[in-house]
Amino acid sequence: MGESAWLIIVAILGVVALLFLVMRTKLQAFLALILISFIVGLAVGMTPEEIIATFETGMGETVAFIAIVIGLGAMFGEVLKVSGGAERLALTMINKFGEKRSSWALGIAGLIISIPIFLDVALVILMPILYTLANKTKKSLLFFGVPLLAGLLVAHGMIPPTPGPIAASSILGADLGWVILFGILVGVPAMILAGPVYGNFISKKIHVPVPEEMNQQAAALADLEEQADAKEQKELPSFISVISIIMLPLILMLLNTLAPFILEEGSVLRNILVFIGHPYAALTITTLLTFYIFGTKRGYSRDEIQQITTKSLEPAGIIILITGAGGIFGEMLVASGVGDVMANAMEQVNLPVVVFAFLTAALLRLAVGSVTVAMVTSSSIVAPILSTMSISDPMMAVLVITIASGAVIAPHVSDSGFWMVNRYFGMSVGDTLKSWTVLATIISFVGFGLTLILSLFLM
After folding, report:
1. Distances (CA, A) of 150 to 104, 199, 420, 445, 454
2. Residue 291: is its pLDDT beyond 60?
3. I need a labelling partner for 145 at 20 to 30 A (CA). Which of 68, 132, 223, 345 fits?
């Protein structure tokens, strides 16, 4: 093994070790990625001017796309949350499926809700519904919670416009329409096995009652349902309006991807679909409709809508910075020639890029805890390798889902979500590992297995 190969191994181990040692927040992850990018540049002998130029290129090319997409997605998700859209979708799904199949309803509801709304926020919103169901049926809270968590995690990791898939798609240059398509194809089976199926199994092994301190939330939800017509309460939006606004950007982006295959080049309809299906246009249309349907029509003033959307950009801002830092790191690997060394090393050991992408994402997830950070960093490591290969658009999207699969594996004590689940479910650390950690690992391996199969047909 040559000196350059050793250098790349040290660089990869260095970023993992650095993130593991210093990262406790997303801000620290941003600073860690910036620092390791400097280290890589200096280690290969780049001049300060070359390092700065690489930083500008990496940050500019990455943020130019994701800043608009993540910003718009955050705004329409926040308005939907404030209007009660998440509660309406979950309650309607449960009513339609019936109490006996409520676990399936919650899995599907989680899958849909977490597309526009951040996972932790969606969980906080929907926990009172779980408490009410558990109290009413006397079943383990895990019977309802595991399917919901599975749906939330699948959408959070695999289906744009959530930040992780958006960031990974931007760094790898993947088409969002293909990412959405494969995210759904891979995510739904993963949600079923990790959600209703595993939830039914583990709830019989571990009985988790509603924590005493949380019963007040369940009572509050019951009062909300009983007093829905009270003057001080705003009626929840309709199910049709909620599901339509969530699916609208996904459908538009899918049409953008499929239009070249089903319509003749130069046709008016094809040009229209390509335009409105671009992520910028699709999310702008969706956001404006959300402001009107779930804001203005429901009595919110312009100032109130502005306050809501401004608040939504706080968590979006740090995610944009982290993604930009990931773009810098990836560009540094390309500019330094390390990406070529990695590609040659993979060829020598005959390691498929799908396996490398999964293992890299899984290693980073175990080290840093955050799904989004793991996806951004692993995409930055994989991207220089892909630049030396001929990869089709569908296969590039499959690699995004592969990275997502690795990035959701085995959440443990370094993951903030682990402690959120632990607290809201009132479980011990051991029971949290048996439920939350295992369901996430099921999603990870099912996702990896399916993407590996897809890669056999697309490579």
Report:
1. 11, 9, 15, 13, 22
2. yes
3. 223
